[in-house]
Amino acid sequence: MLIDLLVEYKGLIWQGLTTTIKLSVIGILLSTIWGFIIGFFRNSKSEWLKIFGYYYVELFRNIPLIVQIFFIYFSFNIADVFPFLKEFARILKVEDANAFFSALLALVLYTSAYISEVVKSGLNAIPRSQIEAAASLGFTKLQMIFYIIIPQLFLIIIPALTNQYLNLIKNSSLAMTIGVAELTFVTQQIDAETFRGFEAATIVTILYIILTLTTSFIMSLINKWVSKNGRRTFE
């Protein structure tokens, strides 16, 4: 029975769930920030920033995520390179800082490449007349970005952004390949101990569905709020 297995291994399943949530939430936050920066680079007037953004996207979008995870994990100990990550790992209650942050870095690099393309497309969809009107009113570049571009950008890209967030949550399962004890890793552990892999996979599948549906619901609420308030602002 699923309930029996859930009760017996509730501690292990909870550990896997919280690890997946940590990877997903931090990954979404960082990949969004970096993806927006790269997206603005792609639309920059500077040729150097355009070239950097172009090759960044082509590099990380076209290398399989699992290869990136292996490369980062086996090339260097990220927790030794950035010692502050050890303290961060202690706060997050992460056992293997190197494995966790290697997987997190790969997720951020990979997902931000896709988010940057979403941002680039959104920027291209904003009418040029809006920028010209803001410039004629004396707006600085930063004022244009924060008061004109970003509010309209979110009106356009939230649905596509949601898809990338869902992909990141699902891709976090690849962290199991380097020993991060997330949900998929937990499934294998339970199967190895009980030979009840089907029940374990069913529980984990339900948890993934809950995570993705919750994310979709939150993004749907944000989309409604942005659409309501954003369109009122620009009417």
Walk me through the topology.
Elements: H1 2-8, H2 10-42, H3 47-61, H4 65-75, H5 78-81, H6 84-92, H7 97-125, H8 128-136, H9 141-171, H10 183-194, H11 197-234
Helix pairs in contact: 2-3, 2-7, 2-10, 3-7, 4-7, 7-9, 8-9, 9-11, 10-11
Would you give an account of this structure?
The structure is a single chain. 84% of the residues lie in helices and 0% in strands. The chain has helices at 2-8, 10-42, 47-61, 65-75, 78-81, 84-92, 97-125, 128-136, 141-171, 183-194, 197-234. Helix 2 crosses helix 7. The radius of gyration is 21 Å and the shape is globular. It has eleven helices and no strands. It is an all-alpha fold and 235 residues long. The chain has one domain (2-234): MetI-like (MetI-like fold, Orthogonal Bundle), CATH 1.10.3720. The relative contact order is 0.15. It comes from Thermodesulfatator indicus (strain DSM 15286 / JCM 11887 / CIR29812).
